[in-house]
């Protein structure tokens, strides 16, 4: 169980392997104390290998590669930044990405929503004039959608599809490379 949780969710909680190691060290010491002072010596029995557990551990390893690839691709900002730097940023088409190539990334990763387009039941209680001295007409949110004034408002932009394709490509390349290294 510990091996499964540690390997499957290591991208979500990178501190898990260290905590598992500390737990195992403490558990080994406690078991040693019990064997020396509390119990009789166990009788050894011979075994050829670990049996069915080898297949189970191998399956957990493959599942962990797939899960971690999805966690990295979907939750991190790594891939959208690369797509912006090489396709949409100031350095697009130059084959390089440096410090100045990310200028405008935040603005490009936010979409615009017209507050008056809310459905009646989900409209805000106030128009924001008490906080901003004038009524709020637009809000920004993290997505890649067309603005409300376009011919097809709130549909996905081409940048969304590029980011999605890059994420799926990353998942496939990550899995193939890692599983090839494991099989070697």
UniProtKB/TrEMBL annotation:
The keyword Cell inner membrane does not apply. Its main location: membrane. Keywords: Membrane, Transmembrane, Transmembrane helix. It is a multi-pass membrane protein. The keyword Membrane applies. The chain crosses the membrane at residues 6-30, 51-74, 160-182. This is Anoctamin. It comes from Ameca splendens.
């Amino acid at each position: 169980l510990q091996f499964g949780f540690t390997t499957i969710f290591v991208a979500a909680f990178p501190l898990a392997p260290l905590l598992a190691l500390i737990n195992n060290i403490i558990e080994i010491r406690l078991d040693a104390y019990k064997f020396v002072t509390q119990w009789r010596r166990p009788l050894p029995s011979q075994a050829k290998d670990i049996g069915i557990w080898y297949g189970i551990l191998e399956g957990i390893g493959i599942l962990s590669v797939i899960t971690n690839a999805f966690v990295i691709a979907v939750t991190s900002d790594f891939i959208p930044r690369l797509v912006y730097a090489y396709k949409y940023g100031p350095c697009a088409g130059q084959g390089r990405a440096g410090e100045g190539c990310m200028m405008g990334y935040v603005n490009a990763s936010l979409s615009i929503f017209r507050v008056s387009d809310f459905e009646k039941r989900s409209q805000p209680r106030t128009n924001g004039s008490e906080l901003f001295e004038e009524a709020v007409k637009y809000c920004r949110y993290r997505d890649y959608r067309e603005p409300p004034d376009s011919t097809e408002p709130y549909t996905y932009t081409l940048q969304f599809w590029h980011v999605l394709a890059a994420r799926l490509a990353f998942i496939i390349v990550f899995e193939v490379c890692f599983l090839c290294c494991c099989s070697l």
